[in-house]
Design brief:
This protein is an alpha+beta fold. It is built from 13 helices and 13 strands. The protein is globular and about 60 Å long.
Length: 383
Amino acid sequence: MTARIVSIGTATPPTMITQDRIRDFFAQQPGTDRLTLRLIRATFDAAEIERRHTVLTELGAVSEKRSAGGDGIFIDPGGVLRAPGTAVRNAEYIRHAPELSRQAAQMALDEAGMAASSITHVVTASCTGCFAPGPDFRIVRDLGLSDATERYHLGFMGCAAAFPALRAAERFCAAQPDAVVLVVCTELCSLHIRPSSSPDQILSSSVFADGSAAAVVTAAHADRPGLDLERFATTLTSQGESDMAWTIGDDGFEMVLTGEVPRIIGREIRGAVDAFLGNTVPTAWAVHPGGRSILDRVQAGLDLAPDALATSRSVLRDYGNMSSATVMFILREMLHDDAVDPGATIAGLAFGPGLTVESALLTKRTAALASAPPHDRHLAGAR
């Protein structure tokens, strides 16, 4: 039996920041010279993001031109961005990430109509914080799962981690037909903002955001609608190892995201996708929006229709880049989008350090379609 995503739940922090106001906040930081000011304005304005969410309530306050508020961990009373140490940032991750994960996971369980006791495996993914017992442990405790639930955590795989996490879930379902796997991707990217004139850091500050997404994956409930997990692939590009990187420094996690990344993806995406898809022609595309320029390069490199990446662009516009959680937001939109018909094939692409391309092929199913005999199912999908 084919493993299927039967539900996807999402959660974002209540604090929302708008792109124009957060741009102005960075532009008004002390010591910003004219060149850096132009770079900030150009980078933020080109991102095609309107709003994002953050666990930093004080960032929301200053972006709305109110007082700094909060405890001043990241912003001093005068509205100046601080550079707290890694331990302080990680403590905020420990404080906020488990609850955001719980909210997304509970939504996924509720929409699947499944009790927490039905979960047999938990797979978590995150690259923006770390602790032990970790996110996988907290999911078991916070949702009241069985103490015997198998737990796995994928750490530091960057924006591409959702597809390896779903692939692991598919493998568990193949090995254990009655498995019900809960996959949770939670990222608090805003915890690693810092004052900087570096183009890489300015780019990071212009796109990254916070969010969580969870999926219930099983092969044991073929009567439920969802997204069948057909196959996966991993490809390393010939270049880019030093162009997308994520390391731990003394004052937070340090992102390297050079302007070469979109160009490398643009050059190599056709080969990676052709090798994965073969003769399959997808009906829809779920492409991780690492940034507007990455979507532009994918669209041009694959010669896609102008509206082929509309869902990816709308998620980028409304949520920014939430690292590994983002493509799950896109899949949720497609799961609930009546314009994506039953039987539609969805090609998923996400990009991570390496430079790594993670690919997935999914098929949208309805309950009636899933329970039909193979011949009728083929006919129904063709209509």
